[in-house]
Every structure is written in structure tokens, then in C-alpha cells.
Amino acid sequence: MSGTPVKVHIYDISKGMARSMSYAFLGKQIDGVWHTGVVVYGREYFFGGGGIEYCPPCGTILGPPDNIYDCGTTEIPYELFMEYLNELSNTSFRPECYHLLDHNCNTFSNELANFLTGKGIPPQITNLPADVLSTPFGSMIRPFIDAMTVSPSGGQPMSVPRTTPVSHPPPPLGQNSARASSTRLPTTSNDVLKGKSAAHTVPPTATARTEKGKEFDMDRNAVVFGSREVLASYKCLQQRLAEKLKPEEVVVLDEVYEYLTCKNQTWSLGRSHISLIGRVLNISDVNEETHTTLLKCLQLALLKEDILQLVIHDNERSLMKLVKTFEASALAVKVEITKLLINMCNSKAGFDWLTSISQWPIESQEICNCSITNQTCVSCLLDENIQLKDVGAALAYNLSRFKVTEDSAVEVGSALIQCLSCQVSEKTAFHCLFALDSFSKINREVADLCAVIGLDLTLYKDRSTRLAQICANLQRTLASG
């Protein structure tokens, strides 16, 4: 197991002034006034006057770090990490516990780094307050420092304080529940969770490709699927599964429902919840309706970043093992499995996981996530069923918002060309053409395939304004070789 990298971002909040002026004031050289954050699992965590907060790496007002300290890797599971963070946020690292000298961001970073790797942050950072206070000037200004706090803007709090009322009480925090704090959903994903339509588009992440043109910008948003209406059928689902599950498993399933219906969670699902869904989906005598209902619930859950991270860091790869059963599944189940992948591609973290080329064993063979994702997409695009073509095109579209490998571009690109030779809807045509344009830029072989097979763009450019625009873009790409 390779482990997850752990870095400490080190910022000089004096912006060099400490190095140039400290000797004159303190009588000793101070290289910086340090703020630190621990970067792990795709986020930067830090402690300040607002308690434990998180942001994307380098996401606070401080900008890029002055130094990055490599702590090595951690084998701590994401679920346990979140449980530990939530415990800290409600005990020793509550907002009122902050003290600029005695209990600050560096205290937190040192404790968190030790928990993750057994290795603390550099001692010159943790010893800085003692170095300052050991000087006459430091002792003189201590009363003023005691009243100060540092909390760089740009972070989000780890959890809702225990004293904050919530619309629904959380379920019992037993072994099946992670004491993880809820993460704020991106506004767009939250809109999806509140909405009633089956498919939506949300703005791309900061790492997604940008294009010029207002209409094109609007249409290049990610496709996501999710409807809260599926939760209305939960009671029926519960009854159908009652005889197949143990009492404690029914409790776990109830917690999944509670989590998806609660608007202000102070807790998160754990690995046991995801594992149970995966196990139920693999029960041979569970009917198709039960399968599709569970898959739709999982689609909703994957729009929440903490659940996405939980799936990504699941060493059992439960979701990928489920996707591997695609070919043997019923049509309705195939459609919902593909929608799971589409929702994961809403984020860069999900895309990176789905397109990972790291090999892992299954059924006495080695396979990678990228291979399973590509096979699923291609199978949908080449199927005669229009529903599968639609979701296959949406998956290719979401994949194309980021940079796939050259081999993936050819594999999926050839299927896109064949799909476009059939009668498809305007939406499916747009998704196919957008992805084809992207893949042609990644690998020239895709453009050559368009010429060999004879892709006729005149069949699409008159169907809508956005199709005319993407056809023009693709034509320029094909002619630029």
C-alpha cells in the first residue's frame, strides 16, 4: 500500500518583515512569523480563531506557501481521519481554545501530522513563541499578543457547533456512524439535491477547461444526475429488504436515509454504510427496482464531497467492483450505474480516481479504474438502446472536461464517432461532439479516425445554435493537424 501523501504548507504571515526587522526589535534573528496548514486527502486543514477549518490547498488569502514540508505518507483511512478531526474540533481545538502563542495553528498542525505519520512539523516553527517571549521586547508585548487571533480567510469550518440546533437530530453515533463533520456542498450540487428534475448541469470546477463564448460556457457545465424524489420510496425499499438484512443492517440503512434527507448534517456516513449498499446490490435475489432505488440514493450521496472522498479512499474498491458487473446487469441498472460515474466526474478528485491507471486485483486478474470506466462508457455508446447512448455520451462529456490519457481518447473517441453515425437526440449529439473535439486535441489519432470513418458534421450543425458552434470548433480542430 503506497499510502496518502501528507504535506505541511508553511506561510510567513509577516511577508519577510520578520526576517528583516526582528533583530532590531528582539535582539535575535527570526526568519518568519509562521502559519501552517496540513494538506492531505485533497484539502488543507488549519486551526485559527474560527476553530478547525479546511480549504483547497493554497486556498486561503495567504496564497501559495513559502515552504512545503514533506511529512511522508499516511495509512490512516479517510473515515478514521475525519472522525479524529471532528473529535478535535469539539474538544481541544474548539474556537475558544485558540491562543496565538500557546495553542495556535502550529500546535494543531504538529498534532495532526503526528497522528497521520508519527512525524511532527519542524521544531523551529513550534518553538517560535518561546523564542519571541524569551526576549525583553517579547515579554513586554505579551499582553497585547494574548488578545490576538489569526484565522486566514478562505476556509470553511469543520463542523456545526454542538450548540447549534439542527432540523433533524443525527442518528446514534455507534460503530456504523463516522463522527465526521458535514462538508458544505458546492451551491450547484446543493441545488441538484433540492431539485426534482433527473439531470442537471453544474458549473465546472476550477481545474476544468474554459472556453470562450457565453453560450458555450453555459453548455460546458458538468452533467449530474439526482432527484430527491427517490427518497419518497424509501419505506417500500425498507420493507423489501427487511427479510434479507440483519436488524443492525436495517439501522445502518435508516442512517443512509436520514443523512440524505437531513439538510444540516453534523455527521457523515461511514465505510459501513457504503459497504452495506454494495452488499445489498450484490444480493442475487434482490429485484431490479430495489437495485435502481439504491443506486439513485448513492448518486445523491456522491454529490457530497465527504462521501466522494470516502469512496475514493475505500481500499475495498466497492464501487468499482459494482461497476465491473455492468455487462451482466439489467438495462435499468446499467443506466443507473453509469449515472454514478457521471456524478463522480463532476469533480476533479472523482475524475482522477475514475481514470487512475493503478492496477488492483479482481477475479485473479489485474485491472485499473481507467479501464473499467472506459469500457463502461464505450459499451453505452455502442449499445442500440437510446437511454444507454444518452448516459454514455454524458459520461464521455464529463470525462472530456479534464485531460484523459491519449489511449483513453482513442478508445472512447472511436465509440463516439460510431454513436454519431446513428440517430441521436440534440443533447446526446452535443455531448458526443464536445467530447470528440476535446479528445481530438489530446490525440491526433482521433481526428484521423473522424476522417477515415467519414464523420459528417452537416447532419448536426443546423439542429441548434450550440451544435452549430461546437461543429465549427470541431471542424477547426480536425483541420488544424
List keywords for this structure.
six-stranded antiparallel sheet, alpha+beta, globular, 22 helices, 481 residues, two-stranded antiparallel sheet, 50% helix
Structural summary, described in words:
Helix content is 50%, strand content 12%. Helix 17 crosses helix 18 (386-400). The protein is an alpha+beta fold and 481 residues long. The protein starts with a strand and ends with a helix. The chain is built from 22 helices and 12 strands. The strands form 4 sheets. The protein has a 6-stranded antiparallel beta sheet with strand order 5-1-2-3-4-6, covered by helices on one side. The radius of gyration is 26 Å and the shape is globular. The chain has helices at 17-26, 78-89, 105-117, 123-126, 128-133, 136-146, 187-194, 214-219, 234-241, 247-261, 271-281, 288-301, 305-312, 318-323, 331-344, 348-354, 369-382, 386-400, 406-420, 426-442, 444-453, 465-479, and strands at residues 4-12, 34-40, 43-48, 51-55, 67-74, 156-157, 177-178, 199-202, 222-225, 268-269, 359-362, 365-368. Strand 3 and strand 4 (51-55) form a beta hairpin.
